[in-house]
TrEMBL record:
This is Alpha/beta-Hydrolases superfamily protein. InterPro entries: AB_hydrolase_fold, Dienelactn_hydro, Dienelactone_hydrolase-like. The keyword Hydrolase applies. One of its GO terms (molecular function) is hydrolase activity. Residues 61-280 form the Dienelactone hydrolase domain. It comes from the Eukaryota. It comes from Zea mays. The keyword Hydrolase applies. Keywords: Hydrolase. The gene is LOC100282241. GO terms for biological process: response to zinc ion.
Length: 284
């Protein structure tokens, strides 16, 4: 049995375990409600996206593409909420950086989107993490087969962990930028990374062993031994999910006890993101 540990997020306390593939898998009972629904339907920016289907092995999954055709590609990986408004906001912003990118969001939850923390935890708990890595690989290959000469991967929280894993496990990945998430050792060993990795963490992130300062420094040591180019940045005064800045996201964060807002840190992180992806993917 994996050893349970307490993870404290501001005023809320959750019981998590270090399971074999899911770094935040819950051991505690949860309200298990799911709402299968079209992930793109509630946002006015949905018209900017092209919905596609990607095949891998005997599975087909939806993905959403925005940005310039034939530009360098970036796979954008969701937080534990699913493909919601905020991951779409990130993808649109990424598509407009530098000379432009083609951003692709794979729907790792197959249409499910969480409405609260319990749902989000349950959906992530049920994720096939090795299968998610295969989804990422198929997404990278789709972009490269459809005009993107090079492809990077980025992600947030759960997606951050998966983006680092992709830099280890998916040879087609050309660069990674991860936000506040690290993979379990059973999923991927960052010391074996093959793609350049840049990672961002908040100084006051309280997700112990996953995205707190200790996890960030541990990741840095592993990347140092990998021999690949890397950067690990820690942002003073910031907590988990500090890149989420829409009014809806700020309201959700406050409901979780995350009250910090730091636009200067957000701007700096985006600047570093743009420089990193421009360096390894080129500009459109």
């Amino acid at each position: 049995m994996a050893t349970a540990r307490l993870l404290r997020c501001a005023s809320s306390t959750f019981l998590f375990s270090t399971c074999t593939t899911n770094p935040l898998r819950s051991c505690s009972p949860l309200v298990r409600r799911q709402h299968p629904r079209a992930a793109m339907a509630t946002d006015s920016s949905a018209a900017s996206f092209q919905k596609i289907q990607i095949q891998r092995e005997d599975t087909t999954f939806d993905a959403y593409v925005v940005g310039k055709e034939n530009a360098p590609g970036i796979v954008v990986l969701q937080e534990w909420w699913g493909v919601d408004y905020e991951i779409k906001n990130h993808a649109i912003h990424i598509s407009q950086l530098g000379g432009g990118y083609r951003a692709l969001i794979p729907d790792l939850y197959r249409g499910k989107v969480a409405l609260d923390v319990a749902e989000a935890q349950h959906l992530m708990e049920g994720l096939d993490w090795q299968g998610a890595v295969k989804d990422i690989q198929a997404s990278v290959k789709w972009l490269k087969s459809n005009g993107s000469p090079k492809v990077g991967v980025t992600g947030y929280c759960m997606g951050g962990a998966l983006s680092i894993a992709s830099g280890v496990l998916v040879p087609e990945v050309d660069a990674v930028v991860a936000f506040y998430g690290t993979p379990s050792s059973e999923l991927a060993d960052p010391s074996k990374a093959k793609a350049p990795i840049q990672a961002h963490f908040g100084e006051h992130d309280s997700f112990v062993g996953f995205s707190d300062v200790t996890a960030a420094k541990s990741l840095e040591e592993k990347l140092k031994s990998s021999g690949i180019p890397y950067e690990v940045h820690i942002y003073p005064g910031c907590s988990h999910a500090f890149m989420n800045t829409s009014p809806e996201a700020l309201k959700r964060k406050k409901g979780m006890g995350l009250t910090d807002e730091n636009q200067e840190a957000v701007d700096l992180a985006w600047s570093r993101f743009s420089s990193w992806m421009g360096r390894f993917l080129g500009s459109a």
